[in-house]
């Protein structure tokens, strides 16, 4: 692994080359959010008030699902303070944007901003990191999962993307609620409960069939879109002792129109260098990274990243490799031998693997 540097080390070298306006909030991003909000309201009212053929409901559900996901991407930007700076307004707008994904702004900032960003790819402190071989050996459930063939695991993993964000968000609530000061906990509870109250209220109003198209199916679609990005953010990268975004993060490329619709969410390395900067300026950050450290920077098309995720396991071996414990196949990670165009593995002996698990 190359010498590692903190995100601040890189940011300090890029910042002088950025325009001053790049470090200011960009409230104009809210116009995109307003458009998505109006689309969601129109879709929900259409399903709720009109009796249409299920095919039309399906089409509306797809539009709602893509809009839910896009609102989540904007909510992510809002809650980093890159759209508005006033705390109460930031949290209000963030709550609205994350409402379909049922994640409260205070929980998100605690889980994502203050923990994931500070401890990215630290296997003990990052709540979003994947397990090591040592952790696998201590979990009966994980040991059972990794007895399955890698193809079955890959299929199950990709199918589970339809629910992963929602379930992980609930897990993060359970994990972090006690870390909030007692006087703040009721507010965090309220932010967790209110979205579900509104969606259950919608169920009572329009009935199960329409609710499926108005909320449940769109939520599954939104989960899948959001998690397709999140799955590529770090899962091919190594665990690292230093929070180095050029080592622990991956930027994926998508068509330009997708970047417009998704608020440049694909620029993930850039986001970890400047989380307090609007993603509007991430293409310029990318230009400077590639100019200064082209050999360190990781990017690939989202389709290639997804294929690489399918073909590789999600258990870390010696921090910078990935291992399939069932077969004893060891794969490199990005920057440590993984070539997405030609994924190879090396075989280790079963007795060596058993010995390392027992340490």
Automatic annotation (TrEMBL):
Which molecular-function annotations from GO does this UniProt entry contain? oxidoreductase activity, acting on paired donors, with oxidation of a pair of donors resulting in the reduction of molecular oxygen to two molecules of water
Keyword set, alphabetical order: Membrane, Transmembrane, Transmembrane helix
Q: Domain Fatty acid desaturase: where?
A: 54-301
Which GO annotations describe the biological process of this protein? lipid biosynthetic process
Q: List membrane-spanning regions.
A: 30-50, 56-75, 188-206, 212-230
Residue ranges that the Swiss-Prot or TrEMBL entry lists as coiled coil? none
Superkingdom per UniProt: Bacteria
Pfam families tied to this protein: FA_desaturase
A GO cellular component entry from the record: membrane
Record-linked InterPro entries: FA_desaturase_dom, Fatty_acid_desaturase
- Protein name from the UniProt record: Acyl-CoA desaturase
The organism of origin for this protein: Metabacillus arenae
């Amino acid at each position: 692994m190359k010498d590692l540097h903190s995100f601040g080390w890189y940011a300090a070298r890029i910042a002088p080359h950025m325009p001053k306006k790049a470090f200011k909030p960009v409230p104009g991003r809210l116009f995109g959010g307003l458009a998505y909000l109006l689309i969601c309201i129109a879709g929900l009212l259409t399903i709720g008030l009109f009796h249409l053929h299920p095919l039309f409901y399906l089409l509306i559900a797809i539009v709602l699902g893509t809009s839910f996901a896009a609102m989540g991407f904007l909510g992510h930007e809002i809650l980093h303070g890159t759209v508005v700076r006033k705390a109460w307004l930031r949290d209000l707008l963030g709550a609205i944007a994350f409402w379909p994904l049922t994640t409260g702004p205070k929980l998100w900032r605690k889980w994502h901003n203050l923990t994931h960003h500070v401890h990215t790819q630290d296997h003990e402190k990052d709540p979003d990191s994947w397990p090591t071989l040592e952790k696998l050996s201590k979990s009966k459930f994980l040991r059972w999962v990794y007895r399955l063939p890698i193809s079955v695991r890959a299929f199950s993993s990709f199918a589970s993307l339809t629910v992963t964000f929602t379930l992980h968000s609930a897990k993060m609530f359970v994990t972090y609620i006690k870390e909030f000061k007692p006087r703040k906990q009721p507010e965090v509870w309220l932010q967790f409960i209110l979205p579900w109250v509104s969606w259950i209220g919608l169920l009572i109003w329009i009935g199960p069939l329409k609710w499926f198209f108005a909320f449940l199916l769109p939520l599954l679609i939104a989960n899948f879109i959001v998690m397709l990005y999140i799955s590529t953010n770090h899962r091919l990268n190594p665990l690292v002792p230093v929070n180095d975004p050029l080592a622990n993060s991956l930027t994926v490329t998508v068509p330009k129109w997708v970047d417009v619709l998704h608020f440049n969410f694909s620029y993930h390395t850039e986001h970890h260098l400047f989380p307090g900067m609007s993603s509007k300026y991430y293409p310029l950050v990318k230009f400077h990274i590639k100019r200064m450290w082209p050999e360190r920077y990781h990017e690939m098309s989202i389709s290639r990243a997804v294929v690489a995720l399918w073909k590789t396991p999600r258990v870390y071996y010696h921090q910078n490799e990935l291992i399939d414990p069932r077969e004893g196949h060891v794969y490199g990670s990005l920057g440590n031998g993984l070539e997405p165009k030609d994924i190879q593995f090396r075989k280790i002996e079963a007795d060596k693997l058993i010995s390392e698990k027992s340490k």
